[in-house]
Design goal:
single chain; 228 residues; Rossmann fold; four-stranded antiparallel beta sheet; 30% helix
Length: 228
């Protein structure tokens, strides 16, 4: 099968005053359907920059990105927004849940930006997603009423509610205790069985060891790419 995402010669240069910072220095990688991949590296290695570009949150300075058979490196802002709403999901270290919305409303939120958005269908999809992560008993709670592990499970429900092809998880266990770290990693791993690709960005080797493939980055380049 062709790769879900194929990137070739990917470069990202940021201008910081009079200096050019090379965040990505010619990265070549393939990501396949149903993979659990960890991108490992210290701060400044380029791992988060790579995730933001592959998640249509940023654009490369140079290089090719083929997503589901389509070249997407030069898309317009509107088209990138479509991909973010329809084909990718995000999970963040700080959860990024809106405090004034209920759990159900937070999970349904990404569906509001779709062209075919309908309140009844959005609510039904959100309930299914919450059931999948074991949070259907907290529909009417606010994020402040949840533990850190519960908030992250809600964030995962929000990431999967739109049936994405790939989920990017940026340090998703950074604010959790050991018990909840294990639970969240098991939950992310379970998504692979449904054909969803999970890309986990971390600096923690113990967390990365739960993935089936580890990509190590340093100074904007891939240092190692190994299967486990």
């Amino acid at each position: 099968m062709p790769a879900l995402i194929a990137i070739r010669g990917l470069r990202k240069i940021y201008q910081m005053g009079d200096e050019n910072v090379h965040a990505l220095a010619g990265v070549n990688l393939d990501f396949n359907q149903g993979e659990f991949v960890a991108i490992l590296g210290p701060s400044g290695s380029g791992k988060s920059t790579l995730m933001h570009i592959l998640g249509f949150m940023d654009t490369p300075t140079e290089g090719s990105i083929v997503f589901e058979g389509q070249e997407v490196s030069g898309l317009s802002a509107d088209r990138r927004a479509w991909y973010r709403s329809n084909r990718v999901g995000f999970v963040f270290q700080s959860f990024n849940l809106l405090p004034r919305l209920t759990v159900l409303e937070n999970v349904a939120l990404p569906l509001l930006y779709r062209e075919d958005s309908k309140p009844e269908a959005n609510e039904a999809a959100a309930k299914i997603a919450l059931e999948r992560v074991g949070m259907s008993h907290r529909l009417d709670h606010r994020p402040s009423q949840l533990s850190g592990g519960e908030r992250q499970r809600v964030a995962i429900a929000r990431a999967i509610v739109g049936a994405p092809a790939i989920i990017f998880a940026d340090e998703p266990t950074g604010n959790l205790d050991v018990k909840n770290i294990s639970r969240i990693l098991e939950l992310l791993a379970s998504l692979i069985k449904e054909g969803i690709t999970v890309v986990l960005v971390t600096h923690d080797l113990a967390v990365a060891d739960h993935a089936h493939r580890i990509i190590s980055m340093r100074e904007g380049a891939v240092q190692e790419d190994r299967q486990r």
